[in-house]
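Side project, low priority. Logging it here so it doesn't get lost.
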Amino acid sequence: MCHITKGDYMPKDSDVPFFTSPQSPPHRQYEALRALLYERRPLEEVARRFQYTPATLRSLVKQFRAGRLQFFRSSKPGPKSAPKRDASRDRVVDLRKQNLSVYDIQTILKHEGIQVSHVLVSQILQEEGFTKLPRRRSVDKPPVPKPDIAEVADIRDLDWKQFRQFETQAGALFVLLPTLIEWDFARWIRKADLPGSSMIPALQSMLALLSLKLVGKERISHVMDVCFDKGFAVFCGLNVIPKTTALSTYSYRVTRDMTASLMDTYADTLIQEGMLPGESFNLDFHAIMQYGEQAVLEKNYVSRRSRAERSVLAFLVQDGDSRALCYANATVRRDQASSEILNFVDFWEQKTGKTPPLLVFDSQLTTHDVLDRLDKRGILFMTLRRRGAAIMRTLSELPKSQWKSVKLRGVSRQYRHVRYTEQTVSLQLLSRDLRQIAVRGLGHEEPTLFLSNDFDSNPRDLIERYAHRMLIENAIAENIDFFHMDALCSSIALQVDLDLMLTFIANALYRHLARHLVGFETVTPKQIFRRFLNTPASVRVSDSEVVVRIARRAHHPILLASGLLDRSPCIPWWNGRRLRLEVR
């Protein structure tokens, strides 16, 4: 028995602060209202004692009298019964006597219209004294529906008789296939000396990976969604499309030298097609995040997260006129990032015999030392300058007469009228001065600072050119949106490099198609796919040709007028069969 002495309930000095200096907000409100309304203390005294303003204290009184304040929570008794548990108890026990597992019982009850969790089933069995079942073999488990197992991809098992006639959801692949033949894609693979096997040659592996990009599949694991679609198999020239393991394992075998060879041939082809005018280039870095827990990657700044994350740093270059992506490297380390711009300059000089005329990038892409090296090579560039406090103070002191008004072309109407001032500035590590243009009215509270070594161009032309730099940000966004460039499925940077190359090829095929569609020359690949290519098709295979009849869409008259469906190329990996496209 517990005995309470007189000293246990006599007041102590240590008890007083609990009432005079309450810590929690509800307790402080209660004591303040008690002192004001019950003890009749003056308003100012109570407000000062409990650290309220008089206005706040008056507001608390109004809330109290309106019944909107609650200081003491009444405990509610819990349920005395469990209807769902009681209703299913007997049935759970009967099923367990048949040696069914917790999950088997849950599935059977679900089919019987009783929705219970496996946790509830386990609790009932424990209350009834049942122990866990021993591990069972597959043959001892109740039969359940299982996915169909597709054939193994093996070009030696290819039998064209199995493709006599079928329906496919991959009509888009056959519309883009003639362009791949014109570009001699098979030669790209041979030149890069990509790995292959007797079951799945290099060309078929690359076609399988590319086909998933062309229809907007997010990850290579989603190949299981189309493994029974014969259209993908015919496109690749295989009996069936390779599965997840085969494609992911293959990507690990591709080296950076092989990807660089593909990039080299890709650029040559686009230059010949007139898709890379090469008058100016937009450059940027993009961090492709790693979503796994076991990451061996460096941390890079990810703009949409506004913090550094484990990611692969990819360097991207876009032609400023055609908007086609022309160079990439996903094996860049953070300590090498500032000099990657020089690697692109060397790449372009090797391709065309001349240096890039104009490079446009932001302030964090490279360093002053690299800017000096670009200037000494005669390469014009335009970049941003960070807004330092001293620079902003100097600009704010300039008289209005030094700010000139100009109307920009080809930009949003909201930012068309701007004011600018220019001057010559000296930067550390640069051997000569640069041209600085400060612009107000581009959507920022403070002026935007442009730096360039181009002293001949009109200021308006330079401002407009940098305003168009957002095209590369749009290109990154549209490749993330449709080609799922951010769907990083491995911490191996090498695999990402190949995935980036496939994204470039898929993007170029869509850009080539858009050039021939009147009124749709600049739309995104996602819109092209939705309006023109996202269509099923019926396929008929004979000994001499493959006839693909794609289902009609509202915008197909534009596609027919382009003449792209009139092409009937001979497909090398179809044993000499020709492709014939029709619209039904």
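Brief comment: Residues 489-494 have pLDDT under 50 and may be disordered.
Revisit when time allows.
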